Amino acid sequence: MDTPTDSELHPPKLPADLRTASDADLGRLARELSEQEQVLEERIAPIRTQIEAVRRAKDTLSTEQRRRERMASHATRKALQEAFADASHPLLETALGIPDLFPGDLPLAELTCVLRTGGTVQLGYATKRGTMSFTNGTEVRSATTWGESTALYLDGWQPGTKTLPGVRIVLIESRVERVVPAVDISIVIPQKD
User: Fold this and answer.
1) According to a count of CB atoms within 10 Å of the terminal CB, is the N or C end of the chain lower?
2) Alpha carbon separation from 171 to 33, 88, 102, 132, 161 (Å, rounded)
3) Where are the domains of the chain?
4) What is the pLDDT of residue 131?
5) Residues 6+ apart with CB under 8 A from 154
């Protein structure tokens, strides 16, 4: 069978009413359509192969980009862990006992904190960042500034609630939150120019 040219690769014109076509005409039309389909499939096979090669290259490139992002993240986390271990960032529990460490009106939302594990976090809830709960064992109060936090702490209040002691934190650039002990958090002191 001769390979049809591009001009011959138009689907055959189907009768307006297939119900009136003879069985022979339907068989001929089905064969012509199948032949044209096969020719077109053969023509696009190399393009499909090229597309698959491009997709594999994109996947390989994406894998390398993810590897580099993870390595950069790992290096940052490692540096934070080392800074935490060197005590170059004061522990939150220690810092709360130093009222003049920051201005009293400094919003807690502006503090950058680091977990012992190396993650950068903010105080508070995912939907309400910059809050910190304190309890005296019977009551719970919230602080939103450094001054409020240190005043409650110096009055004997502990971070957390009656039923859940600790500090609620949110991972930076996420909505992931959890409660951790204050000794597992350090505060990043901004470098003075």
Assistant:
1) C
2) 59, 21, 22, 15, 20
3) 15-84, 87-187
4) 93
5) 96, 97, 99
Q: Quick one: CA torsion of 165, 82, 123, 147, rounded to 10 degrees?
A: 90
Q: What angle do CA 166, 168, 172 make, to 5 degrees?
A: 140
Dist. CA 156–CA 168, nearest whole Å: 19
3-state helix, strand, coil in the chain (%, to 5): 45, 20, 35
- Judge contact between 176 and 170, C-beta under 8 A: yes
What is the rounded CA–CA span in Å between residue 119 and residue 133? Answer: 21
Distances (CA, A) of 49 to 35, 61, 97, 114: 22, 18, 67, 49
User: Are 177 and 169 a contacting pair, CB within 8 Å?
Assistant: yes
* Token reading at 73: 């993240």
Q: Answer yes or no: is pLDDT of 9 > 70.
A: no
Q: Are strands 120-123 and 113-115 parallel, antiparallel or unpaired?
A: antiparallel
Cα-Cα-Cα-Cα dihedral of 152, 155, 161, 163, to 10°? 180
CB 184 within 8 A of CB 115: yes
The separation between CA 127 and the C-alpha centre of its own chain, rounded to angstroms, equals 17
Overall residue count recorded for the chain in this entry: 193
CB 179 within 8 A of CB 164: yes
Q: Which of 132, 133, 109 is nearest to 122 (CA)?
A: 109
Q: Each residue of 113-123: pLDDT tens digit?
A: 888 887 889 99
